[in-house]
Amino acid sequence: MLSITEIKELLATPQKIVITTHHKPDGDAMGSSLGLYAYLIQLGHHVTVITPTDYPYFLHWLPNNSDVIIYTEKTAEAAELVANAALIFCLDFNTLSRINELGELVRASGAYKLMIDHHLEPEDFDDYRHWSINACAAAQLVYEFIVNELNDGELMNKDIATCLYTGIMTDSGSFRFPSATSAVYRIAANLIDAGAEHWKIHQLVYDNATENRLRFLGHCISNKLEILREYNTAIITVTRQELNDYKIITGDTEGIVNYALSINGIRLAAFIIERTDKVKLSLRSTGDFPANEICKKYFNGGGHRNAAGGASVKDLSSTVQEFKEILKEYKTQLLQ
Q1: pTM score of the predicted model
Q2: In 10 A of CB 167, how many CB atoms?
Q3: Which of 158, 161, 267, 316 sits most deeply, having the most CB atoms within 10 A of its CB?
Q4: 40 near 163, Cβ under 8 Å?
Q5: In what order do the strands lie in the sheet with 69-70?
Q6: Are 253 and 273 in contact (CB under 8 A)?
Q7: CA triplet 274, 242, 30: central angle to 5 degrees?
Q8: What is the chain's percent helix, strand, coil content, to nearest 5?
């Protein structure tokens, strides 16, 4: 593993740097990536953010978003940048399978790989690791990397602060999850002091829905919500046809699972959606219920205790039935 002293030496002269994050990036993925980007370009580096796939439209306002390369849209260019990079920062993921086809390109690259992440059980592919499962967001760790590890807090400008605040806000559930500690609030305050307009960021992320998305949300709550009181669980299922009917695009399903979790007495919520090649599951839980354990054990996924995801190669009906059967194993915990 590289030491922080060696990292500082590498960053002392201009380098070709790639920053990448997990597929279907969320607010933390894009916030941490573009925040680090805004820091590194101040040092004179040639930096490119490459995402494996597209990402929600309500994140396109982030500073320097126009410089992002989407791998599926510019495959050859992205592959060349990865191959020629001296450093590759891997943010908000800890296994190369999370960046799809881009993962093998990163693995094959001769670049130093630097992981900044907060997920469980990291894969051993990196040369440097700033990692903590106690962090509420990768953006928190990027802040700590810049300010505490590199001692470059004086370079914290409005662009960096805006991006990192976005990442922390979204991954902490607007500061309502247990991971939003007093230390996180102090970081948020520092980011506001550096120029992050917290009220505006919240509006741009959460009050920026399309009409289709709002009508789809109403459909999900009115027609697709199933309550299993015997397990304190709520499920929302969506078919591929429904996605087409409402003209759903990337980002439109973001956060819908939280509406199911908001019901009084519900400890576990599942949003199960039929995609083209597989069925995706998004789980949210309250307290100490291990949503990530279900995803890892049964659905080839993982995540955090209260927010996790997975997938199934079974059809939608079979996946839902399997999920309901799994609940029997956790009944005691769900009824606590």
Answers
A1: 0.92
A2: 31
A3: 161
A4: no
A5: 69-70, 46-51, 16-21, 87-91, 112-117, 128-131
A6: yes
A7: 65
A8: 45, 20, 35
Domain ranges for the chain, please list them.
4-206, 211-334
Cβ atoms of 126 and 106 closer than 8 Å: no
Under 8 Å between Cβ of 106 and 96: yes
In residues, how long is the chain?
336
- The DSSP secondary-structure symbol of 137 reads -
CA angle at 185 for the pair 183 and 187, rounded to the nearest 5°: 70
Per-residue pLDDT averaged across 76-94, rounded? Answer: 98
Model confidence pLDDT, tens digit, residues 291-311 = 999 999 999 998 889 999 999
Reply yes or no on whether the pLDDT at 8 is more than 90.
yes
Condensed to tens digits (0 to 9), the pLDDT of residues 18-52 reads 999 999 999 999 999 999 999 999 999 999 999 99
Nearest 5°: phi and psi at 281? -120, 135
Q: Is the pLDDT of residue 120 over 90?
A: no
Class of 211-334 in CATH? alpha beta
What is the chain's alpha carbon radius of gyration, rounded to the nearest angstrom? 20
Is beta strand 307-312 parallel, antiparallel or unpaired with respect to 302-303?
Answer: antiparallel
What backbone torsions phi and psi does residue 270 show, to the nearest 5 degrees? -130, 135
How far is CA 269 from each of CA 173, 177, 239, 261, rounded to the nearest angstrom? 15, 15, 17, 5
4-206: CATH architecture = Alpha-Beta Complex (3.90)
